[in-house]
Amino acid sequence: MLLIPCPICGARPEAEFTYAGEAHIARPVDPAALDDHAWGEFLYARTNPKGDHAERWRHTHGCGRFFNALRNTHTDRFTASYLAGATRPHGTPTTESLDAPAMRSETEQWGQA
Amino acid sequence: MKHFSAARLAREALRGQSGWTEHWRSPDRPAHAYDAVIVGGGGHGLATAYYLAKQHGIRRVAVLEKGWLGGGNTGRNTTIIRSNYLMEESAALYNHAVKLWEGLSRELNYNVMFSPRGVMMLAHTVHDVQVGKRHVYANQLAGVDNDWLSPDQAQEYCPPLSLDAGMRYPVLGAALQRRGGTARHDAVAWGYARAASALGVDIVQNCEVTGIRRDAGGAVCGVDTTRGAVATRRVGVVAAGHTSVVMAQAGVRMPLESYPLQALVSEPVKPCFPCVVMSNTIHAYISQSDKGELVIGAGTDAYTSYSQQGGLHIATHTLDAICELFPQFRRMRMLRNWGGIVDVTPDRSPIIGKTPVPGLYVNCGWGTGGFKATPGSGHVFAHTMAHDAPHPINAPFALDRFRTGQLIDEAAAAAVAH
Ligand SMILES: Cc1cc2nc3c(=O)[nH]c(=O)nc-3n(C[C@H](O)[C@H](O)[C@H](O)COP(=O)(O)OP(=O)(O)OC[C@H]3O[C@@H](n4cnc5c(N)ncnc54)[C@H](O)[C@@H]3O)c2cc1C
Ligand SMILES: [Zn+2]
Q1: Which of B378, B364, B379, B385 is nearest to B60 (CA)?
Q2: Domain range for residue B200?
Q3: d(C-alpha B139, C-alpha B179), whole Å
Q4: Residue B84 falls within a domain, yes or no?
Q5: pLDDT at A92
Q6: Domain boundary residue among B344, B366, B400?
Q7: Which chain A residues touch B if contact means CB-CB below 8 Å?
């Protein structure tokens, strides 16, 4: 279970939150002006990076607020959280610069059924 | 490649098992050029290579795998095979696969241990019953085997099932696909690898594709790997959870999100569980492997991740459900728990076809339920790569559907897609 840093309440267990997908995808102001390709990209295309991911969370069972967070999708470590509407913090950390916790490697997770 | 047969087993038994050789050639690095390169050595990629060589005469093929064969979702899944999907397009795709499963061990001369022991999907609410029956009738009209069972019939088919009326989610009925079942996941990867290698396909492990090269016209002209560059005009990306990462190398953004999905196995016990049971409502599925372990599948985590480990609360939730449905398992101990990274599309249907980049093909989006499709997926994807046009079965599964809006909405139809 993740420990998620709500910018208002501080670090709280994942069970209190609802995930809401990639952040900073603004709905086009005039959808009718878009062609099918651009509209499809807005609706469906996602960055889905292996590394830093800006994402939306809602502290459903806490303050109730939506906010954004930066999480490394390889280590699951959060590196920042900020209020909805704020811009993504600069100097986004890379995988290497994180003081990586004792995460198990992929191979150690191997199992078969 | 030496043929496997009873006679050969007997001969080897007599001469101290000294005549067995490696099942497939394992070159250290790829050659400088190929007619086609497959990125990803899971079941789907290996099957694609096999059918390219076998059915389309394209034998200068390389399968490049960043880890080891089947070390992705192929070797991490709970191996449930069924084809009772709701949408016509999906029923046709998965049924194509089930038909191939039935003859696969013979076709590959490799025992993939396909075991059609029946897949039962439980209904726990009035809504479940209505949806389940609709599913059964739609399947019957589409020529896909699926029957509706009363609770008593369900228990007769699967004696460990509890019909206790006091359960939080009592069993109100079940859909049963008798032709569904399980197969041995490793054997599927190894069987395809062996058969493909015998036809000339190079399988290179520990070889990660790090770049996709394009010529001045934008078409694919090669790939960069951790073991050198390779020239090719045809690249098939079959990288499951890592598809977004690989496709980004060609500048293509995908309608995919990658989530951890977990499974567990128990300590091995004597045969006690005759079929596969799934419950979408309380999200648990279970079968018993031939080794005797209970194989239990849990849900995905809520957030995207490549960590290959899910939250413990997700697995616990599933075990709660299993213990309520099958009280006899309450004292079983779990041996191992692991995660795989599944690539999920917005409509929960796979993407199999061409991309905006000439010469680049993609087979992905199988999410939580693509093992069952392995032979069919490889078969139609090989056709797509060989002809630069889809097979009629995978034509509806084009990437372009996210532009045209012709989605194949199994998200609502299947609820969960194993
Ligand atoms: C826990 C769990 C349970 C599941 N249960 C079921 C089930 O019961 N029934 C069912 O039908 N399906 C199930 N699935 C889904 C099923 O496992 C997958 O849909 C299917 O195995 C995908 O096969 P694949 O060959 O496409 O992917 P994989 O087997 O994941 O192969 C993709 C390969 O690509 C490689 N790769 C990635 N990036 C690169 C690169 N840059 N260069 C080279 N190689 C690369 C990876 O290392 C990997 O080996 C389950 C999945 C999980 C995780
Ligand atoms: Zn809060």
Answers
A1: B385
A2: 6-76+185-254+347-413
A3: 13
A4: no
A5: 55
A6: B344
A7: 1-2, 14-15, 18-19, 21, 36-37, 40-41, 43-50, 53, 55, 71, 73-76, 103-104, 106-107, 109-113
As for the ipTM of the complex, it is: 0.92
Which DSSP category does B208 fall into? Answer: -
**How far away is chain B from the Cα of A67, in angstroms, using its nearest Cα?**
15
State the CATH number of the domain containing residue B276. 3.30.9.10
For residue range B386-402, what is the model confidence (pLDDT) as tens digits? 999 999 999 999 999 99
Residue B291 CA, ligand 2 centroid: distance in Å: 47
**What Å distances lie between residue B56 and B24, B231, B383, CA to CA?**
21, 20, 7
Nearest to B34, CA basis, from B69, B58, B67: B58
Q: How far apart are alpha carbons A17 and B54 in whole angstroms?
A: 51
pLDDT at B221 over 70: yes
**Do A109 and B338 make contact, defined as CB atoms within 8 angstroms?**
yes
Is there a domain that residue A20 lies in?
yes
Task: List CB-based neighbours of ion ligand 2 within 5 Å.
Answer: A 6, 8-9, 59, 62-63
Ligand 1 mean position, distance from CA B349 (Å)? 15
B254 CA: distance to closest CA in chain A (Å): 5
Residue A49's domain comprises 3-105
Query: How confident is residue B408, by pLDDT bands cut at 50, 70 and 90?
Result: very high
The CA-based angle B216-B218-B219, given to 5 degrees, is 105
User: pLDDT averaged over chain A?
Assistant: 84
State the pTM of this model.
0.94
A113 in any annotated domain: no
Number of domains comprising chain A = 1
Give the ligand at the shortest distance from the Cα of B41: 1
In a domain, A111, yes or no: no
Parallel/antiparallel/unpaired status of strands B202-204 and B61-64: parallel
Average pLDDT rounded to a whole number, residues B388-417: 87
